[in-house]
Amino acid sequence: MESSSGRRLMLQGRRAADDNAQSSSSSPTRGGLHQVCVVSGADTSSGSSSSGSCKCAPGMQMAPNSTCVDVNECEASPDICGVSGTCTNTAPGYACACGGASVLAEADGVLGGTCVGNIAAGRPAYASSSASEDSGPDKAVDGLTDATAAPLFHTLLDGRTWISLDLGGVARISRFRIWNRADCCGYRLRDAELRVGNTSLTSPSTTNLSAIFPTLVWKQQPPATGAATGEVLDVALEQPVAARWVTLQNFNSRSGDGYLALRELQVFGRLIISQPIAQASKRQPPVMPVPENTDGGGSGAGAAGKKKRRSKSPSPSPNPSPSPSPNARKRTRGGVPPSPAPT
Ligand SMILES: [Ca+2]
Fold it and tell me: Helix-strand-coil percent breakdown of the chain, rounded to 5?
């Protein structure tokens, strides 16, 4: 085709990719196929022709005889398929098969991308509140997702319910999985937002997350009935984003339904800039006594969470101001008042 500047641009890759899909990865392509040539332009990236310059299509490289040959990416970069990935060379390009709990990310045409794991597991997590010591935000990154056995992260009804995760460094994030509670009340997750950023979010008193994390990567779509109980919301980004912090906020405005309760929040990607984690990041949000009725009438934690709390914790004290545990002292450090318990 003819561009406005008079350069002739010849695209010769796609048909050749089809023609040579079964050929040996080391065989040169025929007659300059797999090349992108600028006949009278200034593209000098690689190779040359009598009237200009050429470069090879993705997954190919220029051979000494000025033909494009396949790159065996699996041999050239043995780790190209990342976490639990198995590489298969194709001509052109390559393909990754992801094993374990990893997922495919960053694939681009014939270039098969890489496999990435959940980089949120075990990371410091913070929340607007916690319904009990056994339903803190750490339960959303404990790696447990079983519908009946996984402890729940569960907030109070604090009107701004959110969770934030510190990935420990800037990561190239490709995907999220939000494991909604499976015991009941999944509809409470409605109009939620996922945001990412590089500013820490640890204070439970923070309400306007968009000011801290301007990058909205996902907005929960209808149905207006909210998510289903036990639903796993899979959020695959069209383009990876780079960020250290991830937050999920529930904007369910229905009276009594604004809690945020999850089995797990997973973030799939890979760290690109590692940074040390400050000890202060272990602070947790304020904790209130376990409410007696946390599910009926628009309240509280699910069966799994309640069962775990009953097995580990004594009954809530009738004293409205129990002595804080060492952890509770950490959580209330900084003068943040605890949120009111659900009724
Ligand atoms: Ca290849």
Answer: 15, 30, 55
